[in-house]
Amino acid sequence: MLDFQKMNDLVPAIAQDAETGEVLMMAFMNPEAWRRTLDTGIAHYWSRSRNQIWKKGETSGNVQQVQEIRVDCDGDCVLLRVRQVGGAACHTGYRSCFYRRVEAGALIVDGEKLFDPAEKYGASP
Amino acid sequence: MLDFQKMNDLVPAIAQDAETGEVLMMAFMNPEAWRRTLDTGIAHYWSRSRNQIWKKGETSGNVQQVQEIRVDCDGDCVLLRVRQVGGAACHTGYRSCFYRRVEAGALIVDGEKLFDPAEKYGASP
User: Fold this and answer.
1) What is the rounded CA–CA span in Å between residue B1 and residue A75?
2) In chain A, what residues touch B1 (CB-CB under 8 Å)?
3) What is the value of ipTM here, to two decimals?
């Protein structure tokens, strides 16, 4: 169903808030993350920095309950429509990882911050 | 502003309909595609299959007029909020490349088809 061959066993996966349509984050899935997402209905990704399966929200509690899974024309990208528990998808505390917009060559923060990562994780990420 | 180092000079770029919030497609940008997108306000990507800059819509006329550019927390993913000229982002004629949803292990087509690729491109893609 998915073409994992194009990118060393990874496909990009986009998480979108199923209710508001806001794009929350982008991460990668390997075949195991894809299988666990299908099996559990909870978003799993592959962490390239930690080199391991990453159940989103395992530490913060902000898991993503998958409402719908969509696949693109080439079968090499996944769109998860999710219910984001806790509201914030980003480890920085913002609702969306895309909390900055480009304006006149600069990044302007205009996203909504829902928690303080220092309080949530016990230290700055 | 963007971290192109993580993935061989590429960053994933998501195109989202600025009006409806529908996720239209995902593609990659290299530094040159990023610069052209900023300079022209029209989405440019890097085609991995053709190994060249790809001005989306150059053949079909279905260009993407960029309304807003957002960057994620790590600076390694871009979200373009666009006006999709012609309505259809996908070369298959569907409004979105994500025209299929996963249901019981199968892909169900439920997207809206706006044109016939054979008519538009003169041959099946």
Assistant:
1) 30
2) 102, 105, 107
3) 0.95
